[in-house]
């Protein structure tokens, strides 16, 4: 559920302050831990370094992202692969197909 229209979107004050100092298209990365901040139209064109708990992931804000949260574009969990016999068989087939190509 989005935040009440009466209250408006939540944007961390430090992000707004940093946005005021920079121009659109500036290559400077704005580092933030505020994953719950909503992306607003003024953020389009900027690059944010969103913390995922371990490191900062660069997020280039585009028009389609407006209304979403910054944390949605910085995953906190690393997907390795599904396990099991079927996965191993698929990987073996892919390796064999790659060998036949070369």
TrEMBL record:
Q: What is this protein called?
A: Small ribosomal subunit protein uS19
Region of interest: Disordered: 82-102
Q: Where is the composition biased (Basic and acidic residues)?
A: 86-102
Q: Which PANTHER family match?
A: RIBOSOMAL PROTEIN S19P FAMILY MEMBER (PTHR11880), SMALL RIBOSOMAL SUBUNIT PROTEIN US19M (PTHR11880:SF8)
Where does the signal peptide begin and end? none
Domain of life the protein comes from: Bacteria
Please give one Gene Ontology molecular function term for this protein.
rRNA binding
Identify the SUPFAM superfamilies for this entry: Ribosomal protein S19
Organism encoding this protein: Candidatus Sungbacteria bacterium RIFCSPLOWO2_01_FULL_47_10
Q: Which InterPro entries match?
A: Ribosomal_uS19 (IPR002222), Ribosomal_uS19_bac-type (IPR005732), Ribosomal_uS19_CS (IPR020934), Ribosomal_uS19_SF (IPR023575)
**Which PROSITE patterns does the record match to this protein?**
RIBOSOMAL_S19
Regarding protein family, the annotation reads: Belongs to the universal ribosomal protein uS19 family.
Does the record bear rRNA-binding in its keywords?
yes
Q: Which residues form a coiled coil?
A: none
Q: Name the Gene Ontology biological process terms.
A: ribosomal small subunit assembly; translation
The alphabetized UniProt keywords are: Ribonucleoprotein, Ribosomal protein, RNA-binding, rRNA-binding
What exactly does this protein do? Answer: Protein S19 forms a complex with S13 that binds strongly to the 16S ribosomal RNA.
Q: Which Gene3D superfamilies match?
A: 30s Ribosomal Protein S19, Chain A
The UniProt entry's GO CC annotations, sorted and at most eight, read: cytoplasm; small ribosomal subunit
